[in-house]
Amino acid sequence: MAVEKVNLMDLSIPAMKEFFVSLGEKPFRCEQLLRWIYQFGVTDFTQMSNLRKDLRAKLVEQCEVRAPEIVREQKSADGTIKWALRLDDDQVVETVLIPEEDRNTLCISTQVGCPVKCAFCRTGASGFNRNLKLSEIIGQVFCAATRVGFSHNEEHKPISNVVMMGMGEPLYNLKPVLDSVQILLSDFAFALSKRRVTISTAGVAPILEKIAGQVDVALALSLHAATDELRSKLVPLNDKYPLQEVLTAVRHYLQKSNANCGRVTIEYVLLQGVNDSLEDAHALCRLLSDLPCKINLIPFNEHECAAFKTPNGMRVERFFRILADKGFTVMRRTTRGADIAAACGQLAGQVKSLTVN
Ligand code: SAH
Ligand code: SF4
């Protein structure tokens, strides 16, 4: 009977070290492997010239390095690229590259679908199937690098920023998410600075409390409403973890972090007539008055699974002005990749949903 091979992409850095020790090797072999895979894009053990021949043969026999397969690539008129990646169980997740003048940001998924089911989100509407494995998360970055380039140790990194803002709630898939963060930050792998890796959450307060001090990357909180009443309608998780509990957890995370320069990014999807009024803007100012933050206003990206509307430019401007005049750092996120359904909240993939919609 054929023995299943160990996929090295599924091993966290500590697990990979242990694996090499179990083969009778020194732990630094792990560093060599990480370099080959994530800096050079080499997955064929026979080409790993700084490993002894017998070790290469052993790895060929026992291991593999396997990321999900890119099954579709779509390019937007604005340069955004969306890749659909097929997983072993034939489900599909999506990854988006957003090129900008000074950076290339990759937006990755952490779950197949999402169990949180925010009222306005296409991913939530597609249901939820399962968490992604480490190889399926870090494999998205690997796959993108096969198209735009690996770093080879150079200063200029073809993928300069990674945001966990694709499909899924990262804090509900904690171990693989933290293991992939470690690979993103490792000098032997993607070597990204912790300010260039962002975890975005709908606000799973106890998990945020738990990871405070345990991981240090940029944090984004998807807020979308300034009162519990409205937020519970938009983000059902708010019933479990209401605003004050979430904001307290965010403060604790910030206290133990260097990556955020003391400030959390607040994401606020603007939905016409729902959360974009003058009163909503003032309520937001009051709620955030003593939270060090920058606010990202995201005009709703329309899709067929939700009846919300994008506010017109004047309403967005009015909301923006109120916050800016109160002294908040506020940005309007320009929609990228909408023509290929790659914009925030439009990712759907192919989810074999286990939940009833
Ligand atoms: N689950 C995490 C990360 C993925 S969602 C979270 O919610 O933070 C990434 C961002 O896209 C969130 O801020 C989310 O609110 C936003 N988003 C979801 N649907 C959207 C839509 N239709 N239009 C604009 N932004 C949307
Ligand atoms: Fe899940 Fe985030 Fe979409 Fe909400 S916005 S359903 S948490 S992916």
State the name of the first-level CATH class of the largest domain: Alpha Beta
CATH architecture of the largest domain: Alpha-Beta Barrel
User: Which ligands appear in the coordinates?
Assistant: S-adenosyl-L-homocysteine, iron/sulfur cluster
Number of strands: 14
Structural account:
This protein is of the alpha/beta class and 357 residues long. The chain folds into two domains: 6-64, DNA polymerase, domain 1 (Orthogonal Bundle); 69-340, Aldolase class I (TIM Barrel, Alpha-Beta Barrel). Helices cover 32% and strands 20% of the residues. It contains eleven helices and 14 strands. The protein has helices spanning 13-22, 28-39, 53-62, 122-125, 134-148, 174-185, 205-211, 228-234, 243-255, 278-287, 313-325, and strands at 6-7, 63-64, 69-75, 81-86, 92-100, 103-107, 111-113, 128-131, 161-164, 197-201, 218-222, 264-270, 293-299, 329-332. The strands form three sheets. It has a ten-stranded mixed beta sheet with strand order 3-4-5-6-9-10-11-12-13-14, covered by helices on one side. Strands 1-2 form a two-stranded parallel ribbon. A two-stranded antiparallel sheet has the order 7-8. Helix 7 (205-211) links the parallel strand 10 (197-201) and strand 11 (218-222). The longest helix has 15 residues, at 134-148. The two termini are 42 Å apart. The model has no long low-confidence stretch (mean pLDDT 94). Bound molecules: S-adenosyl-L-homocysteine (SAH) and iron/sulfur cluster. S-adenosyl-L-homocysteine binds at residues 120-122, 165, 169, 200-202, 222, 267, 269, 298, 300-301, 303, 344-345.
